[in-house]
TrEMBL record, chains A, B:
Pfam families with a match to the protein in the record: Peptidase_M20 (PF01546)
Full protein name: Amidase
A single GO molecular function term of this UniProt record: hydrolase activity, acting on carbon-nitrogen (but not peptide) bonds, in linear amidines
Gene3D superfamilies assigned to the protein according to its UniProt record, in alphabetical order: 3.30.70.360, Zn peptidases (3.40.630.10)
């Protein structure tokens, strides 16, 4: 089956392979899917269908389930001949040697953590496609010019420790280690990110830094998490970049009072005011063709017959351009103050009893400016897509901008980067029903493999 | 100091006392306040002023702090010569014998539990005024015609176990014991009301029933919890009745989705929909000069970058008349369904992107129809108020309807009942800053004492 090359060794060298030889290296769809579902035994979520694999995932970062998935990743990549490094953020780098081991590896990477009610594909598919790449290279005795690696980034979701992509953020020197280590978990619990790392024994000694674990490039396969590919009947998204987003915390302070004895005009109802803000943020986003979303809301004291005195909620605002996100923030800052003061913003007060004024504070927790990926990586993904899709390729690919943030955003600050998207059913993600067809998973993994090999081959 | 009466014994008998002798029985303001603040060491809440007693209370029903306050109540009333009975709801009845001990006692009662961020007066004042009554009777060697009692009702607030006045509700056969015993606590925790009762050793063996612990009458001193007395410069509210209210749970079900990749029109955002409902409930209440309040709101899954798929919130609706509350419920049922379906109710959708339809379910958890107190008790309170206030009395009292529910609502179903209100600062209650002046506390206690004695004297 193997074709020996002109090389003096029995190994196949990427730089000596012709287009046909390269394209003939193929991922194994069955093995990829079996591996993926195997690791989904750790953190299995809500069932949505009858088949054994038709459940969601609930694998919060650094939870006991995440530890088991990590252990599998370390053991598997080591048994495939990789050297494994764990850094101070618990990022796991598995490196397969190349002909030249002085230069940094070309990476495939993503994350094994999920949302509390997430699916089996977001992040997980990208890591498994990386592992499948290692298996394809091994079984074909391929020796790359430079090392190739697979990286599992910690707490990409920001669902347990509320800063998404925090560990690639530290690696790229965009987020201070201290900020990351002292993050408090969101749900009832007392862990910080660093105590959680120690607790599961993944607080590595290697600095979390691109200078300690450098990368030649970072490629990430991911489900689109939106409906565009499916709607357009496309198979592969070639990702040019990622839209801008900010995460805000809004705190509204009014006054606790009795629901039965306090007339409406004597109230400073923090929840009623927060409701107006939420509705207004949606209008602000609509007007700009942008997004605004609240995923967390807490109130105090939390009793049926006490008007809440304090409400705190998250606000996630996104748009393709930085200036639109900045403009939304400006509008929100101005308008939320007016809403808290009791002014009628956009007719929200129609039919309402005027109440006492309240206070509002707005904190920016996270800022991810719009990202453009590297032309060389985008080109590698395009070539890989055409190689994988065959003659009909042109009709099956689509260039696009990612709506979600990914570790590739931070990776791209320190090395050439791009991403590969595959369609997911109805664009649903961050939901147990998230689903990507087996052949689409495999096609994405095939494009990832080919992208890494093509990038490796083109290196100086 | 004591005036011996025509009685053949050295004791003072209520039915033989003239108006002057009766009015000369006086509560001790200093002792009352010292006792009250003494028991506020158990469950002390947030500090709002510099004085040692300037803190709120946080004494959820059947908590360790509530147990200590209960223990104090049992020990104190027993040492004052009372017989103490604890029933299957943990209600504590302390009975001081009278000349005739066959007939049921005339009670003073209220509750020792508080809101999570409550004050030192709501409920607590009423129980302490009852204990002070016992002390006044003892130190003056007064023997009443029939027994008098003081009752501490369990979980009046409904703040830990979400059914207010639940234990007087069981006592009056308005709420089944099983419903009450199986109530789940609201905040993270796994107790039911009955396990919590056992845990602190207050699950009594006497049935919680008016047939086991009957009452001749129930008088309750309480802070007004609203601003009317203070605004009108009145000292005593003679309470004619209590407004109607219902507690509802609203559950909105949409779909979890990714905040970055799901465009606004492809969402079924349960929190945005709940915000519209909240705002609308406020408008519905405004239009009817009624009240609507949400004190609890929970959402799932609770992650910054996941649009919530499910939101559940409480809705407390109140008005003086039953038909207004029923009308509000009808409107809310109709309009919430429309809002969930995406219809524009009252212009709430102006400027919003239309989204996918959602589901809503509405559960009625609690219904307290409008209550009218008993003319004989209202008359006893009036006479007592004039006796306590002296010549200027007419200008200092006010007849009123209670905005809040009280155990007197359920007591009134089984025995003649009325209440006495005293002003509280700015009408603030269910808040740590809740405050009632010492002289107003004492005046209220004086009216309570006189009401009970006058009722006792008029009994056949
Ligand atoms: N892909 C993904 O869900 N990333 C989490 C960061 C974000 O919210 O965009
Ligand atoms: N008085 C008082 O706060 N009672 C609780 C029941 C209610 O919410 O009205």
């Amino acid at each position: 089956q193997r074709t020996f090359t002109s090389s003096s060794t029995w190994r196949l060298h990427t730089q000596e392979m012709n287009e046909e030889q390269l394209s003939s290296l193929k991922v194994n769809q069955k093995r990829l899917m079996e591996d993926l579902h195997h690791t989904c035994q750790w953190g299995t979520g809500e069932r949505w269908g009858d088949a054994p694999t038709e459940t969601g995932m609930s694998r919060l970062a650094l939870s006991p389930a995440d530890k088991l998935a990590r252990d599998w990743f370390v053991q598997t990549t080591e048994s495939l001949g990789c050297k494994v490094t764990i850094d101070a953020m618990g990022n796991i780098f598995a490196i397969r040697p190349g002909l030249n081991n002085i230069e940094p590896p070309t990476y495939a990477g993503s994350h094994l953590d999920t949302q509390p009610t997430g699916g089996r594909y977001d992040g997980i598919l990208g890591v498994h496609a990386g592992v499948e790449m290692l298996k394809v290279l091994n079984e074909n005795w391929v020796e790359t010019q430079y090392p190739v690696g697979v990286v599992n980034w910690t707490n990409e979701e920001g669902a347990r420790f509320p800063l998404s992509m925090v560990s690639s953020g530290v690696w790229s020197h965009s987020i201070p280690l201290k900020t990351a280590h002292t993050l408090q978990e969101i749900h009832p619990g007392t862990s910080t990110l660093s105590t959680a790392l120690s607790h599961i024994n993944y607080l590595g000694t290697v600095p979390a830094s691109h200078t300690s674990t450098p990368m030649a490039a970072h490629f990430e396969l991911h489900i689109e998490q939106g409906p565009l590919l499916e709607m357009a009947n496309k198979k592969i998204g070639i990702v040019r970049g990622v839209q801008a987003y900010k995460w805000l915390t809004i705190k509204v302070t009014g006054r606790d009072s009795h629901t039965g004895t306090t007339d409406l005009k004597s109230r400073a109802d923090a929840l009623l005011t927060a409701s107006k803000m939420l509705l207004h943020s949606h209008k602000v986003a609509t007007a700009r063709n942008a997004l605004a979303s609240t995923g967390i809301l807490n109130l105090w004291p939390g009793s049926t017959n006490t008007v809440p005195g304090v409400v705190e909620f998250s606000l996630d605002i996104r748009a393709p351009h930085d200036d639109v996100v900045r403009g939304m923030l400006d509008t929100i800052e101005t308008d939320f103050r007016k809403i808290a003061a009791g002014e009628d913003v956009g007719g929200l007060n129609t039919g309402c009893t005027p109440s006492l004024p309240l206070d509002v504070s707005i904190t920016e927790d996270f800022d991810s400016p719009a990202t453009s990926f590297h032309p060389r990586c985008i080109a590698a993904v395009s070539e890989a897509a055409y190689s994988a899709l065959g003659p009909d390729g042109k009709n099956l690919v689509m260039e696009m901008t990612s709506g979600a943030g990914h570790d590739s955003v931070y990776a791209s600050k320190r090395c050439p980067t791009s991403m590969i998207f595959v369609p997911c059913r109805e664009g649903v993600s961050h939901n147990p029903r998230e689903f990507c067809k087996e052949e689409d998973c495999a096609l994405g993994a095939q494009v990832l493999l080919q992208s890494v090999l093509r990038f490796d081959r083109q290196r100086g």
